[in-house]
Every structure is written in C-alpha cells, then in structure tokens.
C-alpha cells in the first residue's frame, strides 16, 4: 500500500514523514519519527502509556491515525524538558520516587503536563480522576499523586 | 539482633541513577531496540483450548513476498527434562513446549507457529496462510473436576509425583505434597471453636504495563545476540540454550530496561523463537507481544481452591490447623502450591497441623511466578478463617495474631527455626498505629491480615571499579525493576565511605558481568547487595595494602575510615590520610588499576512479615467497594532506600487489592478467556485507591551486613484477606471467594 506524506510539528520542530493509511500515530511516532519515549502498553487506549498532547488535547496516540495528525502540533515526552534542565514535573517524579519500572512514566508525565496546563491547582480527587486513564502497576499511585501535587505547587510558585 | 547503627547513606532516599533517562523517554525498554535490516516476527496461536495438532504446514506463508522465515514445533529439538534457574520457571522440557507447541495445543493462545517478515502487517497476513490441522479435545477448566479419576487428561504421561508409590494410571494431578506436625485430632479436641471453609480464587495476571518484547540477531558464525525485557538475562540465556540445543557461549543476552515483571518475566516466551527465526532468515528479528497475547499466553498465577479448618481455644491459642490446597498449574506442571503450603501457617506457632497441596493441570496458560508465588491464595484462606475465629471468641484480630505469633526460635512449619524476625514488632506497630486506634468510619468495615514471604538468596556477582579520579563504578547483573541501582549505589557508598553521587551502578549483559540469578524472590538488594558490599570490601583491602606500601607499613597497620586509609590506632606515623581519590590517582605507581569483585551463593535471606489493615465501604445498591484507607506495616530488616521500600509496599498493596476486588480470568465453556484486555481485566486505576500509608519496621537480618531482608513480595499477600475481612465487617456477610466484584457482592447481599 502506498504511503502518505504527513507534515506535523513535533515538540516545536516541523517533522515530515511517510505513514501508511492504517498506521496509528503511536506507530508513526515510534517507527517513522524515532520518538521511542512514547510507549505501547495495550494498543487499545486503556493504559495511557502512549499519551501525547495533540493541539492542546491529551490523547492516546494508539487510538489516533497518523494521517489525522496532518498539520497538528504534537508534544511527546521528549518535548517536556525545557532547555538543558528537567521540567518541574519530571523533577518531582524523581524526588518523590514516583516511578519504579518507569515504562508508564512518559505517559504519566505527559498526562500531568496536560492537566496542569489547564488546571494549575487540582485537588487530589481531580488528579486521581484525570490520571485514571494511565495505568501504573508498580507504585499504587500514592507517590505519583504526591509528585503531581508538589509539581503543581512548584509551578504555581514559579508563575 | 544487630545494634541500631547510624549510617550516612544507607537509609536515605536519593534520586535513582537511571531516573533522568526514565522521566525523559530516553530509557530503552524491550520494544525499543531496532537494528538495520530487521524483520518482524509474529506468532500463530491455537484457537482451541485443547487439541491434538495433526499437522502444521508453513509452506504457503513462506512463499509470500516479504516473508523470510517460518517455524513450527517440528523445527525445535526435543528437550531433556530438567530445572533451569530460579523462581518458578519449571521444567525446561515443559517451557520448550510452552514456547512452541509440539503434538498438542494445551490452551487457547498456545504458540503453534511463527513467521518473520519485512513488516508486522505482512507477518500477520502470513500467519493466516499457515495450515494447521487440529483434532479438538474437550477442555479441562475446573481445578477440582480436573482432579477426578475420569477427567480428560492433558498429558497421558503425567503420573502424580510424590505419592508413596508411582500410580498405575496417569492423572491431571502433577504432584502432591504434604507438610504435617503434631497430632491433628488431639489438637481439634482441645479447641473451643472450630472454623471451616472453602475459598476459591480465579487466575490473575501480573499485569506489567510493558508487553514481552525481544530482538535477536544471529550472525554468520552462528552467534546470537538477544535484547529483551527480562528479570534475569542469565537464566533466559540458559533456557534458550536448552530449548534450542545451542551452546551457552554462542548466546549473548542484553537486558533492556524492564517495564514491570512481578515474576512474569522470569521465563522465556519469544526469545528462542526469535533466535530461530533470525537463524533461518539470516537477518535480525524483532518480536513484540500484543496485550491480548500477554493475557492469553503468558504467566498468570494459579487459580485456586483452598479448604481450611482451624481449631482455637477461647484465649485465642490455635490448637490445630488443617488445609487442603489445589492450584491450577495451567498447561504444564509447576503451580506454586509448595510455597503456598509452606507459607500458609508460617506467621504462627502451631503445634498440630496438616497441609496437603495439589499441582493440577488445566487447559489454561502455564502459570508463572507472581509476587510471593502461591502465598496470597493459601494465606487468604487462612487469614479469613482466622478472622472468623476472632469474631467467634470476641477477640481483637491483632491480639489473636499476637497470641499465636511466630518469633525468634519458633520452628517454621516448613522446617528451620526462625532467626530474628519482625512479625511481633509489626503487630505491635499496627496496634499503636493512628489508623488503627481511630474508629472505623460510619458505614465502613475494617479488615486485618498478616503477610509473609520466605525471600531467597541464590547466586550473585558484582564488580567494583575505581576510576582515575576516585569515582566508583558498580557493575552487576540484576535488571533494575524498582530502583535497585540506587540501593546498590547506597550500599557501595556506605561501605567505601564516599558520597553516593560518586557511585554509578550499571547492569551488565551476560558477557560483561558475572552470573546473577533472576531479579526475583526479593533477592536483589539482599544477595546482589551482599556481593556489592563484598566487592567494596575487596577494594578497601587493596586500598589499605597500597597505602601501607606507600607509607612503608604492614597491611594490618592501616585502617579504612570515612573513605580514607589512615594509620591504625597506636601506629605512630606522620602521614596524611589517603582518600580513595588519592589512591586512585597514584594507582599506576602502586600496582595498576583498582578492581574489586565478589561472587557468592547467598544464604540467610531472612523471612519477611507484614501486618496490613484497611477500611472499606460497600455500596449496597451497586455492590461496588471503595477503599477508604489502607495501611501496610512490614519488616524490611533495614530499608536501604526507604522511599523505594515504601513503593514496594504501596505497589504490592494495590496489586493485592486489585486481585481481591476486581481482577480475574473469565473463561467461556470452550476455554477462551473473555476479558483479555485492560478494559475488561480491570487493574486498579488512580481513582480506585486512596493514599496507601506505610510503616517500615526494622528488625535487622543477621545474615546481611546492613540487615537487609527482601521487601518486594510480602506486600501483595495480606491485602486479599484485608479486603475480605473488611467487607465481612461492613456487611455482616462472609464471602469466601474472590474477587469481591460488584456482581458477587450483590449476589451475596441478596442471599442474606
């Protein structure tokens, strides 16, 4: 099957790639663009490991076709850190030991970024429901929720 | 018991060395390895739960454009029976037949053939072109029915092991085992109350977020390199060697970062297939499982039926205990019923007991280790029955456990006497915990239960190298599944007396570091930690010797203090201390590079005990259970990195609560799993759980220099019975079986 030319902006850079019509955005990011930080845990939109931000919306990239990303602005885990330093969300995940195996971590950090971009001061219940689409099997979520709370405070302090 | 010691680095929770890579997406997991000219492998899986395979023909698949290799059972050698490696892998002849079916498909999803093609899409189309002729057989799905003398057999050559005499007829009961002590009848006669029940728990999956994945490449000399996510690359190498009949020396295994395992990545599925496909194709082959394949074809833990009878006096003293356990092994022998039987009474001093265990074949996937394999099922039954004893005699459940608690010197039901253990300390801590002393919230119920795991030692190696500037490289061979690099770094820093930031820990591949058994059995921080400490002691001995030579002293006139060589007390010498950096800088003049090493087979892992309690609320309209609070209290011996110890306790609690409340393998009558995805096999999500409170108890393990006990597995054990006991407390209705899903709770409430 012939491939399609797709032009996107990924983490601020214009990125052109050839994708097949049935290819998911997740597979395109990993296999065509080399953004391997976005992980596949299920391929059915249940685990959130493939979370990316597309035009300001948090999406499971396994549920979106690559072709639908034409003209879109995409943020992946590789685009969260700023300059030569970590983003406060990343810092807080490390400080709070909010990862064990780390495979769900890119998805959680992207989902947290999307949350704090729209709600800088979420309460615990809001955090838990917002992140309910991201599965973590290692931590029991306690340290993740604390890291998000602390990151929100840190960002509010910086603002 | 060792004295409490103030440490500088041990007992702190710094950022892990692999942390930045894991929050930025740089860390390479199993599916992240790509090679030039690489093919994609896919597996054809049995559509039947039980069938004879009459023929497999891959020729049409092989003839397709883009398909470069196709294999089936006939392409694999027959494998001699024998054990490989550590935790629960089972017999390698069975693992070989699990990796690729030969004459029979034994579960829905059993691998029957595999192809390698230039794309995933072509590989999957090629699977459709493979012709398999099956003779379907009735599936055996219920563990108790499977044990009946007239049951359909999975294996005509399975004769029950461990009976006094070899039986004359084959059976689905692969083996039986018995542990007994004292006089059971006399014990029950002394009892004032007797509780008896049967408790059923279905299969559950480890649910690691990263599916199994590997990339293999075989070169023209017949040497293979395999990248994969594994809990033990040395054991994967050994299994692959046996399954393919290749020399170990021709196989190099490189462990990627691992996206969770919980025991489920201690055994091979894809790796031998990928190596064989790569050998046939002459190109690298990558294989990645889908989530559905993970559920259908990789290690769940055993579904179980446990019957328990406990007799106790009105003062709480248990006078007799009896248990009958039947665990589903899945398609091949190897259910963790032995550790289940060994753990069921382990927290208690019981004079009269009998436990019988049965390892039973059924047409479901071959079980793999899952966090404290075998203990949660059996201990759920016992801890629930114990809760009923407490109710009948009107005793606080913690007091009841204290009356019977095992302590230093107690002879464990499985044989040895316990050295110093922390069970009583955990009960005492629970009794005083503010979450326990506060009243149960209105409308909720409180459940209490104990947990236990043996922990294991086994073989480990470590090397420590000192760079020219005195910074330290630790090299070991245990995949880091929850922060163990940080723990190794902390123990090295403490032992050498250098800052943690100067130590880097690496996981070597099978050719760059010495043999290590799996990351499993809660052994890594204990056993590999011991090797790291000993390798650091080797460094210290060498540094003292070099300092002595520099100062013109004997070796025994030098001591190591705070990371420096100093003259021993009473040695009169006008010399400045030599730091590790000083000694490293002058190494060319004192004998060359500084390299320390240790290898060992660690003994004395130190049993781990816990007490958990939680407040749960049941919605009588929907049957949904809400966890209002949960508290885990556990003896860690010594927490090297307390935040990661808490993380183990919290994560284990979440897995145990998921198993207790929602998770289960649901089968239709044909033996097809009906919920092979995360939408329908529902693991806990963030909104299902509260914060999980933890308290680390530290009763040092006398067999480790810092007192470490493994902490990873015990946390999953107690939450099952905590949930059952809390639901009983909340509703007044005892539900013996798990999971306590809304339909089961509604049915129980409406029957009441």
Give a written overview of the molecule.
The complex is a heterodimer of chains A (159) and B (752). Chain A has 159 residues and is α+β, with helices and mostly antiparallel strands. The mean pLDDT of chain A is 97. In chain A, helix 2 (88-95) crosses helix 5. Chain A is globular. In chain A, a hairpin with a 2-residue loop joins strand 3 and strand 4 (57-60). Chain A is built from five helices and five strands, in the order E-E-H-E-E-E-H-H-H-H. Chain A has two domains: 4-79, Ubiquitin-like (UB roll), CATH 3.10.20; 88-158, DNA polymerase, domain 1 (Orthogonal Bundle). In chain A, 34% of the residues lie in helices and 16% in strands. A five-stranded mixed β-sheet of chain A has the order 2-1-5-3-4, sandwiched between helices. Chain B has 752 residues and is an alpha+beta fold. Chain B has a domain at 19-23 and 457-601: Aldehyde Oxidoreductase, domain 4, CATH 3.30.365. Helices cover 28% and strands 24% of the residues of chain B. In chain B, strands 3-5-1-13-10-11-12 form a seven-stranded mixed β-sheet, sandwiched between helices. Chain B is globular. The mean pLDDT of chain B is 97. Classes of the chains: A alpha+beta (159), B alpha+beta (752). The interface between A and B is large, with 55 and 59 residues.
Q: How would the blueprint of this fold be written?
A:
The complex is a heterodimer of chains A (159) and B (752).
Chain A: E1 4-10, E2 13-19, H1 25-32, E3 51-54, E4 57-60, E5 73-75, H2 88-95, H3 105-118, H4 124-130, H5 142-158
Parallel strand pairs in A: 1-5
Antiparallel strand pairs in A: 1-2, 3-4, 3-5
Helix pairs in contact in A: 2-5
Chain B: H1 19-24, E1 39-45, E2 51-57, H2 59-62, E3 67-72, H3 92-99, E4 104-105, E5 111-117, H4 120-128, E6 131-136, H5 143-146, E7 173-181, H6 184-189, E8 193-201, E9 204-205, E10 213-218, E11 224-228, H7 233-244, E12 251-255, H8 271-281, E13 285-288, H9 291-297, E14 300-301, E15 304-312, E16 318-330, H10 337-343, E17 353-361, H11 375-393, H12 397-404, H13 423-432, H14 434-437, E18 444-453, E19 458-466, E20 472-476, H15 484-496, E21 503-507, H16 524-551, E22 558-561, E23 564-567, E24 578-579, H17 580-585, H18 587-590, E25 594-602, E26 608-618, E27 625-635, H19 642-661, E28 692-697, H20 718-731, H21 742-751
Parallel strand pairs in B: 1-13, 11-12, 16-17, 20-21, 27-28
Antiparallel strand pairs in B: 1-5, 2-4, 2-6, 3-5, 7-17, 8-15, 9-14, 10-11, 10-13, 15-16, 18-26, 19-20, 19-25, 22-23, 23-24, 26-27
Helix pairs in contact in B: 10-11, 11-20, 12-13, 15-16, 19-20
């Amino acid at each position: 099957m012939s491939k399609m030319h797709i032009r996107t902006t990924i983490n601020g850079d214009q990125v052109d790639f050839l994708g097949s019509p049935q290819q998911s955005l997740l597979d395109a990011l990993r296999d065509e663009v080399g953004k391997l930080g976005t992980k596949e845990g299920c391929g059915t939109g249940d685990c959130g490991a493939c979370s990316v931000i597309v035009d300001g919306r948090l999406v499971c990239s396994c549920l979106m076709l690559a072709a639908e990303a034409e003209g879109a602005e995409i943020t992946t885990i590789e685009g969260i850190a700023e300059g030569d330093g970590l983003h406060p969300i990343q810092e807080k995940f490390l400080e709070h030991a909010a990862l064990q195996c780390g495979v769900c971590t890119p998805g959680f950090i992207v989902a947290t970024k999307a949350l704090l971009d729209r709600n800088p001061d979420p309460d615990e219940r809001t955090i838990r429901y917002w992140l309910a689409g991201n599965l973590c099997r290692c931590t029991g979520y306690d340290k993740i929720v604390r890291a998000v709370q602390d990151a929100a405070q840190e960002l509010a302090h910086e603002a | 018991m060792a004295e409490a010691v103030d440490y500088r680095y041990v007992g702190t929770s710094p950022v892990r060395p692999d942390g930045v890579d894991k929050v930025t997406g740089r860390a390479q997991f199993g599916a992240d390895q790509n090679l030039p000219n690489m093919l994609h492998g896919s597996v054809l899986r049995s559509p039947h739960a039980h069938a004879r395979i009459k023929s497999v023909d891959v020729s049409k698949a092989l003839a397709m454009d883009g398909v470069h290799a196709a294999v089936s059972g006939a392409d694999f050698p027959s494998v001699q029976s024998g054990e490989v490696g550590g935790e629960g892998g089972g017999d390698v002849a069975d693992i070989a037949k699990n990796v690729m079916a030969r004459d029979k498909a034994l579960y829905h999803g059993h691998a029957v053939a595999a192809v390698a093609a230039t794309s995933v899409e072509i590989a999957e189309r090629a699977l459709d072109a493979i012709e398999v002729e099956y003779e379907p057989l009735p599936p055996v799905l219920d563990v108790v029915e499977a044990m009946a003398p007239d049951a359909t057999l999975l294996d005509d050559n399975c004769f029950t092991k461990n009976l006094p005499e070899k039986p004359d007829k084959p059976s689905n009961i692969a083996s039986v085992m018995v542990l007994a002590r004292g006089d059971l009848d006399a014990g029950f006669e002394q009892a004032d109350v007797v509780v008896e029940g049967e408790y059923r728990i279905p299969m559950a999956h480890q649910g690691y977020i990263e599916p199994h994945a590997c990339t293999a490449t075989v070169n023209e000399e017949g040497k293979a390199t395999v990248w994969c996510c594994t809990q033990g690359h040395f054991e994967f190498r050994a299994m692959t060697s046996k399954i393919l009949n290749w020399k170990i020396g021709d196989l190099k295994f490189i462990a990627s970062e691992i996206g969770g395992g919980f025991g489920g990545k201690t055994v091979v599925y894809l790796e031998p297939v990928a190596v064989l496909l790569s050998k046939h194709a002459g190109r690298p082959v990558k294989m990645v499982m889908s989530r559905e394949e993970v559920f259908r074809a990789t290690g769940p833990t055993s579904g179980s039926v446990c019957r328990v009878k406990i007799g106790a006096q009105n003062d709480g003293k248990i006078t007799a205990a009896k248990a009958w356990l039947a665990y589903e092994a899945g398609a091949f022998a190897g259910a963790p019923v032995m550790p289940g039987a060994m753990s069921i009474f382990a927290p208690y001093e019981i004079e009269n007991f009998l436990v019988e265990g049965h390892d039973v074949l059924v047409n479901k996937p071959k079980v793999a280790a899952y966090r404290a394999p075998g203990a949660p099922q059996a201990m759920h039954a016992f801890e629930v029955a114990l809760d009923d004893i407490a109710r009948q005699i009107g005793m606080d459940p913690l007091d009841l456990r204290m009356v019977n608690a095992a302590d230093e010197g107690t002879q464990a039901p499985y044989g040895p006497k316990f050295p110093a253990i922390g069970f009583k300390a955990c009960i005492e801590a629970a009794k005083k915990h503010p979450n326990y002393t506060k009243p149960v919230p209105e409308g909720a119920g409180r459940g209490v239960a104990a947990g236990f795991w043996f922990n294991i030692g086994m073989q480990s190696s470590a090397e420590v190298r000192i760079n020219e500037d005195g910074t330290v490289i630790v090299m070991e061979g245990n995949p880091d599944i929850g922060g163990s690099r940080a723990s190794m770094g902390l123990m090295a820093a403490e032992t050498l007396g250098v800052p943690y930031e100067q130590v880097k820990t690496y996981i070597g591949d099978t050719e760059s570091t010495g043999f290590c058994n799996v990351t499993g059995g809660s052994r890594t921080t204990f056993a590999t930690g011991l090797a790291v400490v000993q390798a650091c002691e080797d460094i210290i001995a060498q540094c003292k010797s070099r300092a002595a030579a520099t100062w013109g002293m004997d070796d025994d006139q030098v001591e190591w203090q705070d990371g420096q060589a100093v003259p021993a007390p009473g040695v009169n010498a006008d010399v400045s201390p030599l730091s590790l950096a000083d000694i490293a800088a002058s190494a060319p003049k004192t004998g060359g590079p500084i390299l320390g090493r240790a290898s060992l087979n660690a003994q004395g892992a130190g049993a781990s005990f816990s007490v958990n309690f939680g407040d749960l609320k049941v919605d009588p309209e929907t049957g949904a259970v809400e966890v209002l609070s949960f508290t885990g209290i556990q003896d860690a011996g010594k927490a090297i990195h307390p935040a990661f110890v808490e993380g183990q306790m919290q994560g284990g609690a979440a897995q145990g609560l998921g198993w207790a409340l929602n998770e289960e393998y649901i089968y239709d009558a044909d033996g097809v799993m009906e919920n092979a995805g995360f939408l329908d096999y529902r693991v806990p999500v963030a909104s299902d759980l509260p914060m999980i409170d933890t308290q680390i108890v530290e009763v040092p393990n006398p067999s480790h220099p810092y007192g470490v006990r493994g902490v990873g597995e015990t946390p999953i054990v107690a939450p099952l019975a905590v949930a059952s006991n809390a639901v009983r407390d909340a509703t007044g209705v005892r539900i013996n079986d798990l999971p306590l899903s809304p339909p089961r709770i509604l049915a129980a409430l409406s029957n009441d």
